[in-house]
Amino acid sequence: MNLDELRQNINALDAEILKSFEQRMELCRQVALYKQENGLPIFQTDREKDVIHRIRKQAPENLKGYASVLFQNIMDISKYLQYRELHKNVQPYEFKTLKLSSASVACQGTAGANAETAAKQIFGQDCKPQFFAGFADVFSAVQNGDVQFGVIPVENSTAGSVVQAYDLMDKYNFYINKTTVVEITNCLAVKSGTKLEQIKEIFSHPQALSQCSQFIANHQFHANEYSNTATAAKMVAETDQPFGAICSENCAELHGLEILQKSISDCVPNNTRFICISKELLLPEDANRISVILKLPHEEGSLYRLLSKFLIGDMNLLKLESRPIKNGSFEVMFYLDFSGNIHESTVCALLSELSENLEYFKFLGNYSEI
Question: Is the pTM of this model over 0.85?
Fold first, then answer.
């Protein structure tokens, strides 16, 4: 038998498999309706284990593992189909339409901070945010209703994720309703008259220090972490020491500092994404991105099975971040961004399946980028 004949036989067998697959999915749809009528849960652990055990027992020794993966995928597809059938007319979350006018906004840092630039991009140039000392203070102000919105940096195109922000997301109750990207124009700023050769110590936020690591190394500066680029610039402006600050050019000018060198980031352009958060779930009309936090069971293949759900639902996974739970177990929380809108039945099915079947699941919002 030649290669063409082998391929023709495979094609014929694929057609039979597809027909059987269609029949199985129709049976699964009928099972979903039966479960709905009789108040039964879609996910039944014992049934799933029984099927895998039976398949492994029936499969040839050299194909047991392959058969297990195949039928596990088929059952995952079946569950997703059932959730989609039962949730096609169900809205999983109550929300209000996002309105950005006349808003009170919280940012971390002080005037001239990149977060202020992000706030103005979202709310307009007339926006006058309230400034707080730390990210936790911004989350807290939103959660307590002291302000309507908060603006927080979450990732940089050079230095990666802002881990402090991600660590706080699980601790506070909030929803993301917008994101915006700010181009970060890092510069070295000093008090007027300070010479480059006088500078030994520089101050900035850890993200900015990371973004300019090559420049710092080349000049053999000692880098000191500060709460914010703008507060670092303010401190340098008020000290008598020959310190330097890494901050934006606008921030340097605002605090009366002299810019010794511009464009000192390791990579140009250098962009940071900021999220806009609120206490209520507010949905923009053009919402196309969803964020969630979840914990997966510490089982073989659990992450693979999670990621396959996005492929099944034709949803693009935009970001996957993991952070330690910090309980000594080495377990992690996963932070996911993916494309979609909660009005879509595929999205509703996925959110319902995750929220009902995972040990921990938190919906962070459905939003768009300005």
Answer: yes
